[in-house]
């Protein structure tokens, strides 16, 4: 099993960071009373006395410390422990001990002077971290640690105003997790003390000035099997009598950072019955990798599709939450952990934000609020919305950053894309697209209305039926926008379209060639730049350059995409008309040799990389033995590995490196940013000994033979017509794939600048971590770089937290439909097929196969698990999944259409495929024996 580790991650109320993590990692693991390496200030002859014992409070026991001296977190945990609630044992180093540390270390006067001079907070932090803890204070801390039993602990900051009813101060101060040993404990305490002067804490307490004081809680670490949060009121929907629970495998840090999948439960607070449940497939969890080092690892296979919590455990958790709510008389945000079947309460704080109901019109419609106010009711309720076939770059739930970047595309690019198709009147670009539950939808009604100006789509049915899933019956559908005006407007539009289309036929090859050259130039230029050395003005210039390129790449790409789409549609209609039953699914075989397409060629190129690695024993050893996240560095550090990197990896990454999943989503790394997936596939291809024929079009000769045999039966005029259509489809498809890399690269370029801005915001303390870049708005990033607002105003903490909450709420909801008319109720539960034994979807690649299912939720983490011949079952795919198709026995997806990525690539590899099953990932389990019929669209579990 491959384990992927990360650096320390933040909890819901703290940021895990600091040198103590490193110190702890170098300290022998301690469980119970095992001795550890001592720091210089803590001698091996540990004293039994505690000179300042009155400045340390054992939580839950009698002591003289006031709530302010314990800090908000410490005071709350003290109350909960004293009440008999299941809180892990802890002690608190009061603000008095911290103040004593400042005086005895000589820092108090220095800090007062630094604050008077308004020196950067970093100066104060560095001064604290550089000081040794005075020996009497160190003895006091270590004596309390000894009394606790010297377990592995979490060391958490506790400022006086934390976790109050007014402000939570969540994430403003530091924590160090899984600390083991005396030296690491003392270092961790200093990290927490120093975090009082973090930039983010200063900003949250309203700017410069005296920082006050801070306490530190040292609490026994719970190596949780399951953990999560519970809200005693729906934090977004505001529904009454609802306890909302999110649970994940492992530590809660993975849930807070958004790196792991979680289960979602809603419990009725009157009956303790579970009234809603969404169990997700869970691949990774956050856990302790070594003392002081928290990172990601895999969830055991048996636990991946099982609920994190049983009904009894949920009821026990609900009773615990109600007890806490009753004690404080206000709604609570509760952190909890489950270890060996025992619940532990880690924290409880008042909910400081008012729930925002999600039942208004703007929550049920993709239209933006301003359009909801302006459009007639008949238009609002009659609009056809779809997220089918709008490019894999938009597939799936998107982050707030991704959605805002999609809006930039809509406002600044999409209209010019329509113009590039020969559409004279591009209308109101604000109506072209919509946004619903974190997904991007195309306004099919308005787009069909505008495309009525083009001769091939004068009949709107040619367009709309390509974007409609079985949820919508086109027989009863009427376009609320009507048809495009006739008369002179129609004549002008037709003339304009004919002129534009004729010109496109003349320039399409040359433009594709120019775009390919420009892509390599921009890619190479970006590789040479060091964005980390650029200030705001320089980054603004780079972003402006990249957005211009982004615009041109998309506008240049769109005609190839639409023309390939159009020729395919005509081909489908004529096959059905002229070939009858013999034409069933034949249009999927009547395709030119697609080996030149980048999405398919990437699989062959990874196979070539595999052969090159196998020819170099040292390279093969590094790739197979090193942790995935270390493979690239270890290759570059080895002479043979460096030679392989330069001769093989660099050309591959230049050609394919800007690929990634859900490519319009700026938060996702590309292959060049994280080549882990490439190394996973090299391992996979090497282990199973695939040949080039296995990887590329395993039955291409048979497909081509079928095509020739069928075409020969047609009369000459019909055969020539189909051959001409095939030729044009082949040309447009090839040019589409060539220029698609330009489009993808332009997004990667923009991403680079956005994440450099994010890194600088983390350094300034505006963001807690790079994970929070996902909750920025792209327009705010542009405005900030343009100098319109200072960082703290452009990226306000309350707005970031609100976006996080809404995104998490959308993530809990069932997948919205591919297409719907008017509005959709986001609270309506989606029920899987009974028994889960048979599913009916869309047969998108012919053939019938029986094989073992493999649910794949996370491509990078699970590529090494996938076995040749297994049935790939997932929600949706995009170009980054193609290398896996080369070894799959069949493909089944929750969403998709005949022209989705999974369908096209399945047909290319001659792999039976069924898409748009809606529930496959919910009702099929890894290891089930599954029959996939790509002709009828049926998927059936034939053996559990």
What does the secondary structure layout of this molecule look like, with pairings?
Elements: E1 15-16, H1 19-25, E2 56-58, H2 67-82, E3 90-93, H3 95-104, H4 107-116, H5 121-130, H6 135-148, E4 153-158, E5 174-179, H7 182-194, H8 199-204, E6 215-220, E7 226-231, E8 242-249, H9 253-256, E9 263-268, E10 274-278, E11 284-290, E12 293-298, H10 311-328, E13 332-339, E14 342-350, H11 361-364, H12 369-374, H13 377-382, E15 384-386, H14 400-420, E16 433-436, E17 439-443, H15 444-451, H16 461-464, H17 487-528, H18 536-579, H19 598-614, H20 617-625, H21 628-637, H22 639-656, H23 676-688, H24 692-695, H25 700-712, H26 716-763, H27 778-785, H28 791-794, H29 797-812, E18 819-821, E19 838-840, E20 842-845, E21 848-855, H30 859-862, E22 871-874, H31 882-885, E23 890-893, H32 901-908, E24 913-915, H33 920-923, E25 929-933, E26 938-943
Parallel strand pairs: 1-5, 21-22, 22-23, 23-24
Antiparallel strand pairs: 2-3, 3-6, 4-5, 4-6, 7-8, 7-13, 8-9, 9-10, 11-12, 13-14, 15-17, 15-18, 16-17, 19-26, 20-24, 21-25, 25-26
Helix pairs in contact: 1-7, 4-5, 5-7, 14-18, 17-18, 17-26, 18-26, 19-22, 19-23, 20-21, 21-22, 21-23
